[in-house]
Amino acid sequence: MARVAPFIIFLLLTFCQGQFGAASAYWFYFAKTLVAVWLIWEMRPFVSEMRWAMSWEAVFIGVGVFVLWVGLDPVYPKFLKSGMLWNPRAQFGENSALAWIMIITRILGSTLVVPPLEEVFYRSFLYRYIAKPDFLSLPLNRFFPLPFFITAAVFGFSHFQWLAGILCGLAYQWLVLRKNRLGDAMTAHAITNFLLGVWVAWQGAWQFW
To answer: Could you give the number of structural domains in the chain?
Structure first.
């Protein structure tokens, strides 16, 4: 429950974005980020592997996935997004304070909140649970071919940029297997999302959000 329930709550709040008018896409993101901070705080005593870790591999993978995510974008078909593009400048004004609050919230949320929730669910829980329901009895560095590819596929197809998402999932899972800990994948995920967020705000590449 400690590894699954927070992720499900986060998904439900994500589904609510835009369901109550255009502005709700932004306010629900703001609210779910605050809720997720609380969820992560509550998870800490129960999910021992949810600890940040730094390594050169994490930095390399984090930057590399960002380059792949942006570089592959023009060359394959994406899943269609429902509703309007997530663009706070169009919603609240080009340089309005509210637009910048939403942009900064999204960058911080995707950098500091999304990686722990997603890495715990996908790389710690789902990967090992597919291999064995008693997943806590398995070490993080045990390689299982079928769970390795299934988890990456599930992670990838949960994103509009599905191909980049699959490659991303493979890379992050490899990090967990190599380092026998979750923290490096969390760091790599955070680096990728931070660079992507800066890229979106700088280039106006709102399709990535």
So the answer is: 1
Nearest C-alpha neighbor of 113 from the set 30, 36, 13, 1: 36
Q: Which residue has the tokens 């910048």?
A: 100
Tens-of-pLDDT digits for all 209 residues of the chain? 999 999 999 999 999 988 888 888 999 999 999 999 999 999 999 999 999 999 999 999 999 999 999 999 999 998 877 666 889 999 999 889 999 999 999 999 999 999 999 999 999 999 999 999 999 999 999 999 999 999 999 999 999 999 999 999 999 999 999 999 999 999 999 999 999 999 999 999 999 99
pTM of the model: 0.94
**Domain range holding 140?**
5-208
d(CA 184, CA 182): 6
